[in-house]
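New to this. Please check this protein:
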Amino acid sequence: MRVAIAGAGAVGRSIAGELLENGHEILLIDKTPSAISVERVPRAEWLLADACEITSLDEAALQRCHVVIAATGDDKVNLVVSLLAKTEYGVPRVVSRVNNPKNEWLFNESWGVDVAVSTPRLMSALVEEAVSVGDLVRLLRFSQGDANLVELTLPPESTLAGIRVGDVRWPEDTSLVTIIRGSRVLTPSPEEALEPGDELLFVAAQAQEERLEELLSARHGPDHRPAAGGQDGPRNT
């Protein structure tokens, strides 16, 4: 997979290194000569250019990229790069870094952003995740479909403890993606029983987050009870 990264600072280089280790083809773009440090990521392609200029992106052959990552420290630059990548070059997946949380509302499909990553928000979410049991924590926002990656640690008093995944009436537009149990990462199956302390990761529509939290906590009411005998089957939609 070919990936172009706009911004060759510490963040961009770190992303490039990880993706190269996973076998991807990487192009780093930066307009600052001092940022072109080929020796730091020698297996990547490098381009000294302004990623906000069409001529630069033509030179980068952005139409050949499967993913573009706007990783500069300037939100205005990241928005312009995202918009050009999506509208002018039809890049299938555009990921953009959000530096100032106040600008997060701009990073959506209108600006060509498929996934917005806010470092301050992610750090605060990870702190919440580390200390919260029974509370839903939003980890990542996906622009398309108004969906989020959310996490909740199942509290010991939850009535879903001991219930099989396939016997739970999950809210619509909600999908249980992963169960983290101690050092294990489990792919949810209908037969897998939930256990207290399980860290549950969902992709869920924002409108369903409150209902999902009520369902998994000890506070949910009769409308959210597990399906008797699993007759309804899994509701991961």
About this structure: The chain has a mean pLDDT of 84. The chain has five helices and eleven strands. The first strand starts at residue 2 and ends at 6.
